[in-house]
Every structure is written in structure tokens, then in C-alpha cells.
Amino acid sequence: MQAPAKNRILTIILIITLLLTAAAGVMAEAPDASDKEGQPLSNELLGKLFPEVNDMPYPGWLKEGLRVYYRTSTGKLSRSASQGVQDLSDAPLLKPEDLSVTPFLLRTDVTSVYAKRVISYTTVFVDQVYLPWDDISDTWPYGMGSFWIHTGLLKPSGARQEIKTSDISWKILSEEYQAVRIDFDYTAQNGSHYVWIIEKSTGLLLYSARIYRPKPGAEVEITSVEFYSMRYLPVAWTSQTLPSFVRQGLTLSYEGNIQSWNPKTGPGLSVPAMMQVKLEAVEPRWIQARFSRVYSEKETYESQAYIGPAQLGGAFWLPVGYLAGLKEGQVIDKDSITGSVTEVSYIGRAKDGTSRIAIFEFGKNYKRAWIYRSTDGMLIYWMEDKLIDPIMQTSQKSEWNLK
């Protein structure tokens, strides 16, 4: 009876992969010549479309601690509606809530703005139930990122004839924005047409879509992303210096355990795991790290991440001075969109006599915990316990302890 739950989980993972294709970047979504499935343009190719982006300043509203929210979904037009679309640029720009798949919520934090790079940290939530499914970090040049573009790039340019711009009004809920619509046509190469709608005065991404027809006569597929909300987090610790142990080459090792639980069948198989975090580059306001996860001899994963000082949850350290000022029960943040609360849940001593501070994030269908050692600010334990199948009420808990 576990198979249906597994199938739903795999479906959700596939959907998230498709959605991130549309949400990964603003103009960074245009595919290169080797792109066979309309995947987003990789960062190294971004400069080929907009070589001036690396020399442009960031907008004044883009600050460490900024949190933005986007909704995203995917779906198909009906066969009759698809037949009426001769040119993909004429397809209706459907909002996420008007597509067939229940929307997902993308919550992105700006964790660093330093040395011509912006570091962002995104959590993907299953919408409505606000279930965190994945976390992604990325780095962007000042002039363009996953949800902004320098307003100077919105002007028509004869050097980029494949890109068309037009002034439009775009309404989100009750607010109407004056915007620029950008169209990038790639139908001859891979059957895709891309649209971005950018607020004219700020460069904020309001909407983007990938409109795709896999073959002539097929149904039109649309993946869209739309702005939902934004605010600034209380990130008082960002002005403090990094802990002394944070240096290039440092490797942190964690032992982990992952286990599912169902109210009818009880605990599932316990899966041991190992993780290493190696700091590859350490700058004053951001760190590049390499993650190695080992679940078995045949199941290993390598990934790269970027860590900025304004990362609210999940950083591998916090400044000692900030930890010293925390009080048990103190609320660090309340997220009115997801309904989650981040608070200091415990301050005490471990068996070895060292002080520990536990910070929890409580959501409707999940909880996360990070325990830091007060003496040096190092993350020594973290946990995530979340619902992974709302229908079967199956949950999964993962725990990681510093070796």
C-alpha cells in the first residue's frame, strides 16, 4: 500500500523540475543552441545575450534580507484552444492559478549582495499546504537575477533583434503595474516561446512564461511564474563578522538518518547517510561550498551551494555575538504568507557542558530545527520533519549530527 504514495511523490518531484525550468531566471531562461528541451540558459551563457549585465549596478531595493514570493504552475491548453494558436506569441498568458497543476510557491531570500554578486536562497513549497520540498541556492550578477533585471536592459536594442519589447499594464490581484513585456522566440530551434513581464520603474519580475509546442498540431504547454509578495526580514546578525573557523578548505562532516512514518503502518525503513560540506571559496560576505551526500555505495550526490550572511535558516554557522543576545522563546520571524514561525526554542547545556541554542521553524505541515554551539557558532545538529504525502498522511524525518 506504499506504492501510491511513492508515485505521488515522484510526480511532485517531476512537476517541481518542470516549474524550476521556468522560474530559474528572468532573461536567463533563453536556451542555447544545444538545448533540446527548452531548459533555462545556464549562467555562463547569460553574458552572451546581455554582455553588459555584469557591469550594471543592482537596484536600490535589492538588499540583504529581502524575501520575495512567486507562484508557479504548469499545464496544457485544450486541444481546441491549442488549434487556435498559430503563433506561440499569441498564446494566452495564463496565470499559475489558471493552469491545471496546483501552484507551487517559491520563497526566495537575498542572502548576500557583495563584489558584483547576489546570492539567493530559495525554498520550494507545495502551495496551499505550504509543504517545503526543496532548497536551492544560486549566484547572480548585479544587473540581472531570478526576479529582477536592470531597467536599462528594458529598452529596445537593434543589436538583439530576436528580442521584442512592448509596454503593457499587468494586474496582480488588485494592483496594476506599468510594465514592459519581453518576447524571445525560439520556436524554430526547440518549439518554445518565452515571455517576461517586468515592472518598468523597478525591474521587478512580475510574470514569466515558457510556451511550448512539442510538435506541429500538438497541444500547447505553458509553464508560468507570477510575483506574489515581498518583504524584508529582520537579519540583525549580518553586520557581524564570520566565525574564525570559517575559512577556505574547511570540511564539516555530518552523520544522518532519514525515516518515514505513517499513522497506520508506523515507522518505515531507517536510512543512514553521510554528508560532507567543504568550503571551496570564502569571501567576506559569501561562501561557496561543495556538498557530498552518501546514502549507500551506489547512491551518492554532489552539489554546490552558496551561503550568504542573511540566510535565516540552515546556515552552517551564526555569529557568536548574535547567538549571545538571543532569548529563549524569542520570535525571530513570522511569515504571513506560509504561516510559519521561526523562534528560539531552547537555550541550555549539553552533556559535555557546552551551551547550545536551538532555532526552530514551525509550519503547518513541517518543522525544521538548527542547533548551534554557543562557543563558536557552529551548526552541530539540524532536523527536518515534514509531511510528504498529505493523502496518506505519511511524514519523513531527517536528522544530521556533526561528527
Keywords:
single chain, mainly beta, 10-stranded antiparallel sheet, 9-stranded antiparallel sheet, 5 helices
Structural overview:
With 403 residues, the protein is mainly β. It folds into two domains: 3-232, no CATH class; 236-402, no CATH class. It contains five helices and 19 strands. It has a ten-stranded antiparallel beta sheet. Strands 4-3-2-1-9-8-7-6-5 form a nine-stranded antiparallel beta sheet. A hairpin with a 5-residue loop joins strand 17 (366-373) and strand 18 (379-389). The two termini are 37 Å apart. Residues 1-47 have low confidence and may be disordered.
Brief sketch in words of this structure:
By secondary structure, this protein is mainly beta. 10% of the residues lie in helices and 48% in strands.
